[in-house]
Amino acid sequence: MEKGLLKKLKRESGQVAIIFALAIIPVFAVAGFAIDFQNTIKKKQKVQLVVDSAVLAAARLKQTGASDAQVELSVQQFIDAQINSMGGGFRCNAAQTRVVNGVEEVNSEILCSQDTTLTRVIGKEKLDFRVNSAAEYGIDKIDVAFMFDISGSMNSSSRLTNLKAAAQEAINVLLPADAPAELIEDTRLAMISYNSMVNAGPYFEAIAGVPPTRTYTHTIAGSDSGVSTDQGDLESELTIDFINTTDGRLVSEFGDDAVIALEDWRGDNRTVDNFTVGITVPRSSSLWGRVGSMRLELTGPTRRTKNDNGSPYSLWGDRRGSYSRNNGRKWREGDHRLRVRAYERRNRRGAVLFDETFDFEVARDRGRDPETKTYTLTSTCVWERDGDEKFTDAAPGPNAYLSHREAWFEEDPDHRDGGVWKTGHSNRPDHSSYRGTECRAATPLGLTNNRNTLNTYVRNLTAGGGTAGHLGVAWSWYLIAEGWNGVFTGDSAPLPYTEPDSQKAVILMTDGEFNREIFPEQGTSDQQARALCDRMKLKDVRVYAVALNAPRAGKEVLSYCATGSDYYYEPETAADLIEAYRKIATSISDLRISQ
Fold first, then answer.
1. Distance of CA 67 to the CA centre of its chain
2. Is pTM beyond 0.70 here?
């Protein structure tokens, strides 16, 4: 019985083995197919990326005027260079590429296969897949504004020289020398440079509301009554006389705190001619017979220093005691000070016998008529806006002008001209950095596709002054803003924001920290720049930013302004800077190509 059972068990185990052997084949097939399929999917994803890149590059090549055959060949060469390195039983047929001129499209399809491993047990030696991609090469319209920082720090370490090379590289990428007419026509670049101001140049009157040359007036009120001569505190040791040298007439003896009232003042100059001061030593003085020379020092609106060896001792020469030969000089109205020193001997030698100072005023002896003061300046320098439109791209108008250099008169009754003219901006009147003379020669360059005009602008840039970065941000926007087509007209008129198949972009560049503003009450230069960038990006303007060796604050504001991290660059070397501008220009060119 045991032998029969043993035979039965052997027979049944053999059957199980046969069943297991038959069952293991599909198990291996399923597992092998899963592994081979996953490997093939990975290869397909890689091929898809290669073909996508190939047609994008081909579309860009077509934009430069290449023939259909050249474009098709470029796709195959690109694919071959990338796919040949994949190996591992992977192969592809030649790509089927077409340039469809009617719809302005490059499309490509490729059939590939991947050798299997475990799936071979069921006779499946390879897995096939097909990849296709397409890119439009229709030339869409682009308006691009370059912002250049030309503050004084750009003169260090050849930064300005490097910027010029980088900007010209970008021009070459966006407007290739051999580009077709269609690309040239629909690609326009604008440029703006700034330091602590922007030179608005020919656009100044349109955006400031005043002409480049402007005359300011101010009237000083008149007075009905004049002044009378007051001799002041006379000096007992000396006789000090104020003398009219036209006729030798004594106007008045005077001393400390005297007022000398005169007639015949000459208009706006407020001067009178032919007067002098003469000094003698009276017999009653303790100095009688002891003085060999005197030194007279006159300060104030009228100035004179004189050494005199003979009596009378005078500021302007007497002729043997006579003053009647027009030997006096022109005097200005105002407070004066006369210092008198007497010496024992000639030529200021010997002991000092006398040293006193006398304050006196030279004034009109009659009422003063109102006086109109005028001041003319010529300047096309501008600062930022204030008011409701300060952070917008609104067109210039009654509430949207940019602030500019002004002049105003500050009255000062003690000044010989009744006061002084000051220039700059009335919001920062006492700040020397805002006098309004700092802008450079470069004026805004409106949108153009003229390579020579663009390259000439870049070559002629010079640097100096402070860094009002928010002005550069604002003007970059203005150059491409649709509302400014009344300022930038003709071929430079910006496209409407709603223009079909169009894109606007700005490229911001600085090496410094934004640190100049006229209206601090509406934020620092940094804060105003951020507010402008926020509004600009809401209009779908793409913002690229380049921080060239900039401090942390400069990097932070540019990083904030950039449309995204891929739009922000921090070059450190000349080569880095050129590469950054090349990448930006290529990125802008790619805006034309859609998959």
1. 43
2. no
